[in-house]
User: Which sequence fits this backbone?
């Protein structure tokens, strides 16, 4: 396997791996930021959001829904990209320090395992609606809703493809 891909693969962790890594990072004095999502078709809005999230701390951990979880949340036509593609694309980003898949519909157990200092989601979520906000706030952390970059979404991309190829 190529060295670059192997470096990316090392950023994809299971729950036990991230639990140990997060404890190590915290012991080293790093501020951990956590976010999560499906990240099906990666676009500029995702890049902007993830970069903003990383700027809030020292390490950015991204929980990513498994294919089965995405399908339950978004419907039978999703995800468009397979798990390997979604995991590796996110892990390849220089401002993402760890990618952790999860099977559940919410990342609550993953948030418990990571114990981030800052929990973030996109602008369509009010901080009090964000899963795990109570845990992070009780531990003295912050919960933030970051603004969207208008016009970018997986749904918009999907609709553009369908419109262009239906005529």
Assistant:
């Amino acid at each position: 396997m190529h060295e670059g891909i192997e470096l990316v693969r090392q950023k994809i962790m299971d729950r036990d791996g991230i639990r140990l890594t997060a404890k190590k990072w915290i012991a080293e004095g790093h501020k951990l930021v956590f976010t999560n999502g499906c990240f099906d078709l990666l676009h500029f809005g995702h890049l902007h959001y993830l970069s903003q999230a990383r700027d809030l701390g020292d390490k950015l951990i991204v929980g990513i829904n498994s294919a089965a979880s995405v399908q339950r949340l978004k419907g039978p036509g999703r995800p468009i990209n397979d798990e390997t593609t979604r995991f590796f694309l996110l892990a390849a980003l220089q401002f993402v320090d760890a990618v952790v898949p999860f099977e559940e519909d919410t990342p609550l157990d993953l948030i418990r395992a990571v114990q981030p200092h800052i929990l973030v989601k996109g602008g369509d979520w009010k901080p009090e609606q964000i899963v795990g906000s109570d845990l992070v706030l009780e531990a003295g952390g912050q919960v933030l809703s970051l603004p969207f970059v208008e016009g970018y979404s997986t749904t918009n991309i999907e609709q553009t493809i369908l419109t262009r190829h239906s005529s």
Q: What stands out?
A: The domain at 3-166 is CATH 3.40.50.620 (Rossmann fold). The longest strand covers residues 59-65.
